[in-house]
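Morning - adenosine-5'-triphosphate inputs below, output right after.
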Amino acid sequence: MSLSKPSAQQRISTFDEFVRLADYSLMDTLNADPDATGDGNDHRARQVFSGHFVPVTPTPLPDPEYVTHSSTFFNELGLSDELVNDPKFCQVFSGDISAAHKPMRKIGWAVGYALSIYGTEYTHQCPFGTGNGYGDGRAISVFEGVFKGQRWEMQLKGGGTTPYCRDADGRAVLRSSVREFLAQEYMHALGVPTTRSLTLYVSKSETVARPWYSQDSYSTDPDIMVDNPVAISTRVAPSFLRVGQLELFARRVRGNTHPRALEELRMIVSHLIDREYQNDINQDLVFADQVVELAKLFRRRLTSLVANWQRIGYCQGNYNSDNCATGGFTLDYGPFGFCEIFDPGFQPWTGGGEHFSFFNQPTAAEANYHMFWTAVRPLLAKDAEALKQLDQIRHGFAEAMQKQIQKMWAAKLGLTDYHPKIVQGLMQLLTKSEVDYTIFFRELSHVPENISALKKSFYRKNSQQLDEQWQSWLKNWHDLVIKGGHLAEISAKMKQINPKYAWREWLIVPAYQQATRGDYTLVRELQEVLSSPYDEQSQRVEDKYYRLKPEAFFNVGGVSHYSCSS
Ligand SMILES: Nc1ncnc2c1ncn2[C@@H]1O[C@H](COP(=O)(O)OP(=O)(O)OP(=O)(O)O)[C@@H](O)[C@H]1O
Ligand SMILES: [Mg+2]
């Protein structure tokens, strides 16, 4: 019997059809850790000295239960929703890949990476103090394949321990998995590049304890240990290559730790170009020139990404180099949050500090870009001209970032050009008043002439003086907008840039709490609402979701801030 690949029109509805799309570029072109057991049963924390990946199998969830999948993303991949009814599909994506069959493999992989925080290299996070134990501790890729001409990697998060687990349990709890699952698809719906969500399963019998907050606690740090069911969410991306990963190989070159170090660095960078920049970089160019192109394109993607984050109120929270995807998309929804009351210093993660706060993300991104630049430099050591170009690209980061931010502000305000006075004036007023970031810009998208139209976005009544300042700013802005063309068109455009529906943590909390009790209604409702954030949606949805944060949730642990994200 010949196993032909399903045609473009056909939707894949069985696991047997699904596996036929398997195509393993990473495992087939990069180096496996020579010390790995090879059978995938390599689950204990240990040092990894060389190679690009460790073959490892996930640890299945006991008594798995289906929570949800992303219908939107299934559709993009050409998968039918029926696929989730196939027991073998459920088995694999809840962590038991023994059901895999050719051409899919019964083995997955985890990768090592290095860590830099805000441009400073760290090794002490690794239990061995060497950096050789740091990498995917609970993320295991299990599939790589080509769907409708596009290559995707599928990775289980919370799929059990790997050699990089640093003696932790390799698990993710349902709470963080629901958040990551919903956030990825919300980000995509907002038009912001991101890892995607495929499926979410929970165990009906295994729980792990994590530090968390008691009900209505105002504590900064968690004040109790809470048992939460373990879950596996599968996230999907063209690759999961991180800046920290390039750094790991570059550090090995610098330390001359083994004879293949420079070659392994070259291989991983070449693999990155292939996985993330194939359509943009001509791979017939000499390698040094490809690296220069890569630096240019990554800078463009990264600066645009961070401008988008500011546009929609997102704070990554922990923008280390190991959470910075070299494909230029959002990765690792752990300590993230979305700003409700506008605050440039917004940072929901208590461990994150000011340097990773909302408006400091351009600088944090530059620090990550700096580490990327440092990591690829050794590859150009013999090509002075290419090196010079690479250095110029690095030095142009701040200017490129600023341009993207200005472009974003102009678009957010419905203007054709950036007007520094308008934006600065607005920033001052937003900071002086207490304004809901999403509601404000959505109401502004109606292009009102009077400040009263914006009142529903204010948390407090303004003084008369402040109202007058607002009115004067609004008039100046309005005068500029009308110069730009047809108001109805400008308003429609602004509504495609300023979402109506925000991620409001106090509306997410009940969903994961309910899910913990086995009821997934709210999770699915949120999936629905957050999949069309720019649409008006029904009155019922508007009444429930287009609202200021209630007073009762201010400063509450687990809602307004959190210190544990796993
Ligand atoms: N429960 C756990 N067991 C094993 N390793 C863990 C666990 N929690 C976190 N880690 C590892 O600790 C490191 C830092 O954690 P962080 O919260 O940034 O990552 P994460 O959310 O697990 O991963 P990712 O960046 O893959 O989304 C990561 O390398 C991660 O794999
Ligand atoms: Mg991480």
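Note: Residues 4 and 554 are 57 Å apart (CA to CA).

O.
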